[in-house]
Amino acid sequence: VLGSCALRSLEILDRLETAAGAGDPRGLELLAALAGVLGRRAELHLHTYLPLIIAAANDPTRGVRQASARAAEAFAAVVSGHGVRARALPALLRGVEEDQWRTRATALGVMAGYLEAMVRDCPRQLNDEVPCIVPVLVRAASDVREECRAAARSCLLATAAVVSSPEIKLLTGHLVEALVETTQECTKVALDKLMATKFVNQVDAAALALVCPVLAAALKHRGHDTNRHAAQIVGAMVLLVRTPRLFLPHLPLIQPLLQQALMSPTDEIVNTAARAFGALARGLPEEEIPEVVPWMQQMLRSRDPVER
Q1: 271 phi and psi, to 5 degrees?
Q2: What is the C-alpha R_g of the chain?
Q3: Which residues contact 149 (CB under 8 A, 6 or more apart)?
Q4: Concatenated DSSP letters for the chain?
């Protein structure tokens, strides 16, 4: 069997790249065959061929789309979790946010299988990547196409499998439902489950990535109890994480909503949001939240009694 170096020296890989990039179904079929021949070594070429396979999924010709699907399945059958992280994940995340819906659906479908490989082979590494993956999947879950929404749900469920926090792991079904459906009812159910949970273990990065978008949605709701409970959980999460720096990727999402909660006319919401801000200030270095102190000083100088 020819190795990768021999294939490269004979310009076979370059020709396959050209054919697949041109939307030639024969090139895509040969890529599928190549994955079967090379086995695990095929993941060395993922970063080159996967974007071409995903792009071919939007081809107007049905035969090309089918060949693209077979090539994606062939690579998924041999790739390892480590290969996914190093070579496939960036291309998949870009594909999920493409304009063409077939490209998005294909990228999501491939990602679901690849995430399962990461759960199997390198769960700790996937846990570290989840804060970057979940926001993309949450946006995909609100796609106008049912195919994309269903695939995004599968990806979120695969991602949730890597959560190590025992308390959050029991709630992943409710959290994913809230992220996919985005209704006030689903958000409230997930929030109520969180409020009823007694946490005795640290919260990991994957758990935090699933919880924070739900808390953000709850902070946007007009319900008095929903706002207050969401702010209360934010403060608790900062204290429960292994290191407060795990909260940093979610700060741009949560901080403006907490600031808005501080302006609430309801004292209970203001007090709870203030305690959450206090937890953030204690847990994070001041250089990580440089705009908070000037903002608070500005509010104290305001003529508006509510802002003060």
Answers
A1: -65, -40
A2: 23
A3: 140, 141, 142, 143, 180
A4: ---HHHHHHTTHHHHHHHHHHTT-HHHHHHHHHHHHHHGGGGGGGHHHHHHHHHHHTT-SSHHHHHHHHHHHHHHHHH--HHHIIIIIHHHHHHHHT-SSHHHHHHHHHHHHHHHHHHHHH-HHHHHHHHHHHHHHHHHHHT-SSHHHHHHHHHHHHHHHTT---HHHHTTHHHHHHHHHH--HHHHHHHHHHHHT----S-B-HHHHHHHHHHHHHHHHS--HHHHHHHHHHHHHHHHHBSSGGGGGGGHHHHHHHHHHHHT-S-HHHHHHHHHHHHHHHHHS-GGGSTTHHHHHHHHHT-S-TTT-
Torsion angle of C-alpha atoms 197, 201, 202, 203, degrees rounded to 10: -40
Structure token digits, residue 124: 């700790």
Task: Note whether 269 and 227 are within 8 A (CB).
Answer: yes
Instruction: Copy the structure tokens of residue 19.
Output: 């054919």
pTM: 0.82
10-residue block means of pLDDT along the chain (308 residues)?
A: 57 77 86 85 82 87 90 84 80 90 90 86 87 93 92 93 94 95 91 93 93 94 88 89 84 89 88 86 71 69 58
Q: Angle 230-119-239 (CA atoms, 0-180°, nearest 5)? A: 30
**pLDDT confidence of residue 47:** 80
